[in-house]
Design goal:
- 36% of the residues lie in helices and 33% in strands.
- The protein has a seven-stranded mixed sheet with strand order 1-2-3-4-5-7-6, sandwiched between helices.
- By secondary structure, it is an alpha+beta fold.
């Protein structure tokens, strides 16, 4: 079982590097023009970790190693976006992604959120299957990703 806490600045920087790397890898697969993802994310987070309506969590194993991160954003009064869920490569395939996802959904429900939304790359089949299994459904589709919702 994982423990979690609010992310610190070092963990935030590491999560951002992982996020940008993931976005770039999917952009490269698509062969799309280079987009200033870092600039766009920094625009969304003008105050970094302190940006209002954003929730950042670090998740730890029993030995207190950081195994993954989550970033969620309030979009509407009762809708929260899962902007990022990531498990470090060396900790993948241990059920941690599922545990992180369930935890952030539980936190959202405690906050009165009624619905979660996320985007998942069409190339990320394991994550897509995990989200379906956990009750998310496809509501829309873009070039390289599905938009999925879940009622809480």
């Amino acid at each position: 079982m994982l423990s979690n806490r609010r992310m610190n600045h070092t963990e935030f920087d590491e999560m951002m590097k992982l996020t940008f790397g993931l976005i770039k890898s999917y952009s490269d697969i698509k062969g799309s023009e280079q987009v200033d993802w870092e600039g766009q994310v920094r625009e969304l987070l003008p105050d970094g970790l302190e940006s209002k309506g954003n929730y950042f969590y670090s998740f730890f194993d029993e030995a207190d190693n950081v195994v993954g991160y989550a970033w969620c954003v309030d979009k509407e009064e009762d809708l929260r976006l899962i902007a990022y869920i990531g498990v470090k490569k060396e900790y993948q395939r241990n059920g941690y992604g599922l545990e992180i996802m369930r935890t952030v959904c539980d936190y959202a429900k405690q906050d009165g959120i009624k619905k979660m939304v996320l985007g998942v790359s069409k190339n990320n089949v394991p994550a897509y299957q995990l989200y379906l299994k956990e009750g998310f459904y496809v509501e829309g589709e873009e070039d390289i990703r599905y938009i999925m919702f879940k009622e809480l």
